[in-house]
Amino acid sequence: MRPRRILIGTLAAVLGAFAIAVFAQPPQARPQGGSSAGTVAVPTGLREAGRALFAEGCSSCHGFEGEGVPGQAPSLRGAGEAAADFYLRTGRMPLDQVGEEPLRATPRYSDSQIRALDAYVASLGPGPAIPVVEPGRGSVSDGMQMFNESCAGCHGTGGKGGVAIGAYAPPLGEATPTEVGEAIRVGPYVMPSFSEAQLDQRDLDSIARYVQLTQNPDDAGGFGIGHIGPVPEGLVAWFAAIAALLLVARLIGQRNEGDEPGGEEGGKA
Ligand code: HEC
Ligand code: HEC
User: How crowded is the C-beta side of 117, counted as CA atoms within 13 Å?
Assistant: First the structure.
């Protein structure tokens, strides 16, 4: 009777540890095809539509000509269409409150409004264009190597998120290939930007391909426990091993107890 109850208790503890490890991390599977806005030749109508949207939704912080307002928001001259596109498609702008880190949210503007705002911000001064990213052309192993060298320090192994100095480095589970390329070129918030010389077109494709892989890891056997990286996964293995050892120890103890009454007391001496 008692060993069985202990067994059940231990099993529950082990399962609990696994459940915490797996469910503490929300599932990050949301594959999205590249939503590349492309670099279309900008019709003036589009730019003017963007100017109107900007006056209404952005100028209170960035100024009427995107010149920036000290203590509020930076100038957008030279931010480029890539920055506008990244901040708008990931819902980071318009920011709710000055001083807080812009975080991913549901986009506030439609696709055509975003293209209009992109065109307007691009017209304020030359800046990075929206990169065309095609993960299919990249190499997973190159991408993984570059990711580990340049990105994992902040975003964590497998892009599960982490901390950067003074900021939260988000998990990359929702980032589209275009957004990955834009983030690399723009360097949002405290993230550094990477120039063409540091990471070229092929590198962008490879990194985006690796990020896609981390979004849909194929579990070739074994239990993924949420792909939270080698350290916590090792820790879970330790918990499981400790629980198993405890179980064995308890079972051995039980048997001695049954053999001779008071055996537990005798063992203490
Ligand atoms: C409440 C104030 C506020 C509003 C409203 C706002 N922004 Fe911002 N914006 C900021 C702040 C603060 C930053 C700097 C944060 C950062 O660097 O990530 C910023 C950064 C940006 C950047 C990045 C600049 C760069 O150099 O990379 C872009 C692009 C941008 N905003 C576009 C917009 C657009 C377009 C709108 C309107 C739809 C908008 N913002 C509305 C406060 C605001
Ligand atoms: C110094 C730390 C740091 C490094 C290194 C870094 N990032 Fe970031 N990254 C950040 C931070 C912080 C943010 C959030 C920016 C914000 O809040 O506007 C971010 C945002 C992003 C986003 C947007 C995610 C989303 O869901 O909206 C992507 C994509 C991204 N980074 C990719 C990369 C890639 C790819 C690399 C390597 C080439 C990289 N980052 C290197 C800190 C970093």
Answer: 28
With a CB cutoff of 8 Å and minimum separation 6, the contacts of 214 are: 28, 158, 159, 160, 172, 173, 227
Cβ atoms of 180 and 204 closer than 8 Å: yes
* pLDDT for res 35: 37
Q: Tokens 């208790």 label which residue?
A: 9
CA of 171 to the centre of ligand 2 (A): 9
Closest ligand to Cα 208? 2
CB of 102 closer than 6 A to ligand 2? yes
Q: Is 208 close to ligand 1, i.e. is its CB under 6 Å away? A: no
Average pLDDT of span 130-157 = 96
Tell me how far apart the alpha carbons of residues 191 and 32 are, in angstroms, rounded to a whole number.
23
Q: Is 84 close to ligand 1, i.e. is its CB under 6 Å away?
A: yes
**For ligand 1, atom 15, which residue shows the shortest CA distance?**
189
Tokens of 217: 């890891």
Name the residue at shortest CA distance from atom 30 of ligand 2. Answer: 183
Distance CA(115)–CA(162), nearest Å, equals 31
The answer to whether 197 touches 160, Cβ cutoff 8 Å, is no
**Average confidence score pLDDT of the chain:** 82
For residues 124 and 25, the model is more confident at 124
Q: Is the pLDDT reported for residue 196 higher than 80?
A: yes
> What is the CA(228)–ligand 1 centre distance, in A?
32
Whether 269 shows a pLDDT value over 80: the answer reads no
- Which of 167, 225, 185 has its CA nearest to residue 80? 185
- What is the Cα–Cα distance from 249 to 242, expressed in whole angstroms? 10
Single-letter residue type at 247: L
